[in-house]
Every structure is written in C-alpha cells, then in structure tokens.
Design a protein that fits this description.
Layout: E1 3-12, E2 18-23, E3 34-35, E4 38-40, H1 47-59, E5 62-75, E6 79-92, E7 102-107, H2 121-127
Parallel strand pairs: 1-6
Antiparallel strand pairs: 1-4, 2-3, 2-7, 5-6
C-alpha cells in the first residue's frame, strides 16, 4: 500500500492579478517542474495554518489564506499526494526563492505554458474555469 502525504499549496496573486509560480530545484523530488508553493502538513495542523507556515519558510513572506481552490488526490508511482490549494495574498514581505530554483509572477492566462507537477494540474484546471 502506498503512503499518502498531505500537502497544501498557495495560489498567490499580486495586484496585477498575476500568479506566483515556483520551479522545483534540481535537489527536490520531481525536479525542474513548476508548482504552487507550499508544503507538507505537520501532525494535527490545519491546512490553512500549514500554508502560512510553509510560505514563511519557503518564500520568507507572510500570506493571508483565502478560499479553497482544489482538494485532490494524485497517485504517483511510489506515493499518493493529497493536495489542497487555496487562494492567497501576500500581506508582508516579498517572496524569495529560498527552496526553489526560481519563482515567477505570470499572468493567469499564461501559466499553462509551464511544465507543472502533475498534482498541480487540477488546480490549474479550476483556475481556468474547467470542472475538476
């Protein structure tokens, strides 16, 4: 039986309605794929709390968490990822690529051109108005 990991991701938008996209570093699993920044939930942690903590750790900024975008399970060859994504806004600081190879602010209508981690694709579908 495959292990399930529970993770959260942030669809962070700026005032120009661009979305923050993060490129996984070569040292991460699934290197060089794009993702919404976030990370694993700790034991007994609420998803919204985990997201605030993870964004502070990964990007060095503070966010406010908004509405849930998607809640999906994606099965990889050796693991199942339960990913919950939320809309978010930066309330303090500027994001830095501390863990990622790089981060980019992109218009929502261009993010599909990137090569995304498979678990993030349902969030993109939701953002583009396609049903999950």
């Amino acid at each position: 039986m495959k292990k399930t990991i529970h993770v959260v991701g942030a669809v962070i938008r700026n005032d120009q309605d661009e979305v923050l996209c993060a490129l996984r570093s070569p040292s991460m699993s699934m290197p060089n794929l794009w993702e919404f920044p976030g990370g694993k939930l700790e034991h007994n942690e609420h998803p919204e709390e985990a997201l605030v903590r993870e964004i502070q750790e990964e990007l060095g900024c503070t966010i406010s968490v908004g509405n849930q975008v998607a809640d999906i399970y994606h099965e990889y060859p050796f693991i199942i990822v339960h990913l919950i994504t939320f809309e978010a806004k930066i309330t303090e600081g500027s994001p830095l690529a501390n863990d990622h190879a790089r981060i980019e602010w992109l218009p929502i209508n261009t993010i599909e051109q990137l090569e995304w981690a498979p678990a993030d694709l349902p969030t993109i579908d939701q953002l583009m108005g396609r049903a999950l």
